[in-house]
Amino acid sequence: MDAQVALQNWQLENNITSVDNQDQLYFYDAEQDKEQVNKKPWTVDPHYFKHVKISAIALIKMVMHARSGGNIEVMGLMQGKIMGDTMVVMDAFALPVEGTETRVNAQNEAYEYMVTYMEQAKQVGRMENVIGWYHSHPGYGCWLSGIDVSTQSLNQQYQEPFVAVVIDPNRTMSAGKVEIGAFRTFPKGYKPIDDEPFEYQTIPLDKIEDFGVHAKEYYPLEISHFKSSVDTQLLDALWNKYWVHTLSQSPLLTNRAYSVQQMADLTKKLDQTNHGMIGRMGGYYGDRKKDEQSQLSKVTKDSSKITTEAMHGLISQVLKDLVFNQSKTKPSSS
Questions:
Q1: Is the dihedral of CA 182, 127, 99, 177 positive or negative?
Q2: Which of 11, 173, 191, 198 has the fewest Cβ atoms nearer than 10 Å?
Q3: 238, 219, 235, 237: which is closest to 227 by C-alpha?
């Protein structure tokens, strides 16, 4: 598999668009940025920010960092600016943070590292301020837990404008496309007018309660990605490292524990759904909800997702085997 072809496929999968080097995205005006921040339009409209534009450089850095953490949550910060109702992420850097399955908190060492990094970044001409934080949710989707909501609310209170980005490295490996979400929390006491549910995603059974309790305390932002010709050299260097890791790993083996966990979780959901369809007198009533929000419909979507990810892993292995392991057929001697 050629690395450049793989890079092009990755860019297509994640809808990374090319912009001109002279695009306003690449210019940082400190005074203009300060003026926009001082207006604080988000205090009037909690839904003010609607879009997040993430550079390809920042995206691949965050994905590589998330994958390096394995099943442990990792955390980092993002640098950028605001342009109207859009938050632009130009770069990202990792923080030396210890995480667990359910929370990721920055320690004193991380704060010291952050201050030093930002000072040195400004010395080399990267004037953008910190505009948000990212962390990983290995294997359980892109959403904010109760701890995440508290952290983001605190950040929005003292460091506005600020956005939270979540990446699932396990699902990224299984699906081939970066599983990512961007979120902002509502102010305390605010009740969102739009009561429409988020786009459906698979949530493990042991996380559903945490997801459901806090689901109305934040809202998602639309994410898009961009790059320009000036990013090519750095993107190629980062991609070569990412590509080597991708080639040397099999989604079926690397995500084996994740796949087993997904199947076990699906079994529990099926048992729960079946139990809910049985009446008190033993009669079988089926799923009374006939729309897409029915429990049976959700379980069906989960099973389809697991099947698709497994097929993706198998196809990836077959292609690697054909490219690297199969010897060329020798011509038969007459």
A1: positive
A2: 191
A3: 235
Distance separating the N- and C-terminal Cα atoms of the chain: 34
CB 186 within 8 A of CB 198: no
Token digits of residue 311:
């097929």
Does the pLDDT at position 123 exceed 60? Answer: yes
Cβ contacts of 95 within 8 Å, gap of 6 or more: 75, 76, 77, 106, 110, 113, 114
**Residue ranges in 69-145 assigned as alpha helix (H):** 108-123
Tell me the C-alpha to C-alpha distance, in Å, between residue 284 and each of 269, 270, 271.
17, 15, 14
* Alpha carbon distance 77, 185 (integer Å): 17
The model's pLDDT over 209-256, given as tens digits with 9 standing for 90+, comes to 556 567 788 999 999 988 877 777 677 777 666 666 655 566 666 666
Q: Which helix (H) or strand (E) holds 221?
A: strand 218-227
Residue with the two structure tokens 């490295």: 169
Average confidence (pLDDT) over 121-145: 83
How large is the average pLDDT for residues 138-155?
A: 87
Could you write out the DSSP letters of every residue in 168-220?
A: -HHHHHHHSS--EEEEEEPPTT---S--PPPPP----GGGHHHHHHHGGGEEE
Measured CA distances, 197 to 148, 182, 296 (Å): 19, 16, 17
Confidence of residue 159 (pLDDT cuts 50, 70, 90): confident
pTM tops 0.90, yes or no = no
Asked if 228 and 26 touch (Cβ cutoff 8 Å), the reply is yes
Instruction: State how far the Cα of 214 lies from the Cα of 207, in Å rounded to an integer.
Output: 11
Residue with tokens 């079994």: 267
